[in-house]
Amino acid sequence: MRDIAIIGIGMIKFGELWEKSLRDIAVEAALNCMKDAGTDRIDSITIGCMSGGLFNGQEHLTSLLPDYLGRHTTPAVRVESACASGGMAVRSAFMEVASGMSDYVLALGVEKMTDVSENIETYTLATTADGDYEAFHGINLPGLYALMAKAHMEKYGTTRNQLAEVAVKNHRNGALNPHSQFPMEITVDTVLRSALVADPLRLFDCSPITDGAAAVLITTVEEAKKIGKQPLVIISGIGVASDTIALCQRKDILKFEAVELAGQRALKMAGKTINDINFAEVHDSYTIAEIMVIEALGIVKEGQGGVATANGITSLNGKFPINPSGGLKSKGHPIGATGVAQICEAVLQLRGQAGKRQIKNAKTALTQNMGGSGGSCVIHILEAK
Ligand code: COA
């Protein structure tokens, strides 16, 4: 297997982008990525998108996107794993270059979610749950995460305020990110006074509905050295795992088994432990999700995610910064783009280009992207060399 580097990243500002189409935002992110890389060589494209069909009436992105990128004969594949589609697209790009099949692969994540009614948004997001045994009976994603939040509060004594602290911290970081959809600071009170979505989760406990795209260009370390990018950012580990799609089938609904296993696999491949990681971008689709993810990754002890957050452990200048970008909560969550955008943030931090939200001496990063209520997960370990 060849060693892999990321030589380009491309983000756009996330938000409700009425004036732009799905193809516009994907092309914008791809062009930003090529500009950042200093090359327009692309041998192949992997596309992360969950549901162009339901959100936009547009499938066949493997023809549309190369076409509108001005390279209609370039091979492309689309990767779908619900909200983990973006991270899985980066993994596919990694494998394609590592295997020697291609030398330069663009991983392009995109989702345009705001052009449909709230009913269609909710229906589409609920397709990430078990269609027959969950969604058909009326439970949706906020409902599933609310069940986890209630159980976590009951078992570990996690408080309503501790959940809110996750959102407060991520909005504080997101306010420093020019690409954020909701770049404003909030207080615990803002969260507690926001509309109830699924008890105990309120509007500000939820990631928003977002239009967005992000891209990374992957090549071999050998090629990256020729281009001369400094510091060189490599992908040293990747781990993927699945879990039952239905929450009721899990041994313990308070354990993200896929996150735990994907984390162990990625760290093993990189030859690292969680203590070697300087910061992480994680999938805070709901405040309770971030709490359970940092527990599953072993960043904090089981049941301690809420307390650790309230104590500032995961703040930008804390012992283990989580979501310096603002996370899904403040930066936004355009499903297929999210996993790619997490990697863009990790690369910015490792290059020392993250501006006011720069983490000091960031050398090793972890990104964690998961599908639905945790039924699939992909984790990347990135290092500055
Ligand atoms: N954080 C902060 N502000 C938000 C927000 C959020 N998560 N979501 C919406 N807002 C703002 C909107 O901009 C709007 O402000 P305005 O009135 O000034 O324009 C207001 O709050 C109401 O927004 P609206 O779009 O009407 O909310 P909604 O009721 O349609 O949707 C949710 C709210 C929480 C149901 C929806 O955002 C949602 O389903 N989120 C979860 C997404 C999800 O599950 N993703 C996959 C996870 S893996």
Please explain how this structure is put together.
- The chain is of the alpha/beta class and 385 residues long.
- The protein has 2 domains: 132 residues, Thiolase/Chalcone synthase (Peroxisomal Thiolase, Chain A, domain 1), CATH 3.40.47; 219 residues, 3-Layer(aba) Sandwich (Peroxisomal Thiolase, Chain A, domain 1).
- The chain has 14 helices and 11 strands.
- The strands form 2 sheets. A 9-stranded mixed β-sheet has the order 3-2-4-7-1-8-11-10-9, with helices on both faces. A two-stranded antiparallel sheet has the order 5-6.
- Strand 10 and strand 11 form a beta hairpin.
- Helix 7 crosses helix 11.
- The longest helix is centred in the last third of the chain and has 17 residues.
- The protein binds coenzyme A.
- Coenzyme A (COA) binds next to helix 5 and helix 6.
Proportion in β-strands: 15-25%
Q: Strand-and-helix sequence, N→C?
A: EHEHHEHEHHHHEEEHEHEHHHHEE
* Distance between the amino and carboxyl termini: 19 Å
Q: Class of the largest domain in CATH?
A: Alpha Beta
In this entry the ligands are: coenzyme A
What do we call the CATH topology of the largest domain? Peroxisomal Thiolase, Chain A, domain 1
Q: What name goes with the CATH superfamily of the largest domain?
A: Thiolase/Chalcone synthase
Rg of Cα set: 19 Å
